[in-house]
Amino acid sequence: MQISQIIGVADAFAPFIYQETYDNSGLLCGDPGWDCTGIMVALDATEPVIEDAIQKGCNLVIAHHPIVFSGLKRITGKNYVEKALLKAIRNEVAILAIHTNLDNVHQGVNGKIASLLALQGPQIMQPKDGLLKKMYCFVPDDHLEKVRNALFYAGAGHIGQYSECSFEASGRGTFTPGPETQPFLGKPGERSSVKETKLEVIYPVQLEVSIVEALEASHPYEEVAYDLVMLSNGYDMVGSGMVGDLQEEMSEQSFLARLKAIFKVPVIRHTPLLGKPIKKVALCGGAGSFLINKALQLKADIYITADMKYHDFFDGNGRLVIADVGHFESEQYTVDLLYDILAEKFPTFAVFKTGVLTNPVNYYI
């Protein structure tokens, strides 16, 4: 199996097109054409993790955080990034980063945290826009269901938790086939007027090629008329953070104690407690200060995230408990998430979770 096939599986679960503009997810080092000898999953692709992969016979490291995040002008081994890259290059180990694209999918990093907290009805806090398009196509009535079913099978027609969504309107289309054509209806050189149905479906942008192919394969016309339009709608299955409800409300102290146990932390930084029960929980793995106002708008009782600065804690405004559990701690279960995805797709292939602890933060208690 080639590394490119594994990249394809990662892209199917968390499309790289979903990553934020500042991010650097994707293959950072190595050749996608290499045969893969094994996969090492980690949160960070540090030098010790690369060594762990080498020792276990793996030539692909899949990490959540991109080891190369900003531009490099030289690789001389002067810092931890360059040391990791040098070791990977010398030993022909590829590095694949799956970062904010994994944060942004519903069953990704935040979905994993929501499941650990047993949240009910989890939803994306801030849906991402620019990811949905609409197709308008024009189909003769007797081929309508064939075309519609082909588009649904290719992945079109999903709106939130609903599938097979479409709209149709009847009308008439006109066309004059050219002299070299072989039209399904009408004759070359003669204008035809045909009863057609305008069919509309929504689809995520990464499926566009397969959806257009499905349209052309199922449509009877020699030249298929269709329009593709970008939508400004947010895609509620993709975006930042997650919010949901506890099955039963808890006291603030009991919930914080639960967080300590789940995230295995000796201490949680938090804003003043409000003396109210916790029911609605908002969360964002990693650095999540940018979603504080969204958590307030959603009337969450607590917002769980990491990397809060001093002034960020004031933004709770006495209406929201903000709990900082630590960056590594909030994302530590991402390794399990990636491992489970890969082990399911490749049950007979060597997939490992690194034994290297990459958390650079220590606590003196």
Explain what this protein looks like in three dimensions.
- Strand 12 (about 280-285), helix 9 (about 290-295) and strand 13 form a beta-alpha-beta unit.
- The protein has helices at about 5-15, 45-55, 80-90, 100-105, 110-115, 145-155, 210-220, 250-265, 290-295, 325-330, 335-345, and strands at about 25-30, 40-45, 60-65, 95, 120-130, 130-140, 165-175, 190-205, 225-230, 235-250, 270, 280-285, 300-305, 320-325, 350-355.
- Strands 5-10-12-13-14-11 form a 6-stranded mixed sheet. Strands 1-4-3-2-15 form a 5-stranded mixed sheet, with helices on both faces.
- The chain is globular and about 85 Å long.
- It has about 375 residues and is α/β, with parallel strands linked by helices.
- The model has no long low-confidence stretch (mean pLDDT about 95).
- The chain is built from 11 helices and 15 strands.
List its salient traits.
11 helices, 15 strands, alpha/beta, 365 residues, 27% helix, five-stranded mixed sheet, six-stranded mixed sheet
Compact description:
This protein is an alpha/beta fold.
What Rg is obtained from the alpha carbons, in whole angstroms?
Answer: 25 Å
- In round numbers, the mean pLDDT is 96
Q: Low-confidence parts, pLDDT < 50 over ≥5 residues?
A: none
Principal-axis shape equals: globular
Percentage of residues in strands = 25-35%
**What is the distance, rounded to the nearest whole angstrom, between the alpha carbons of the first and last residues?**
47 Å
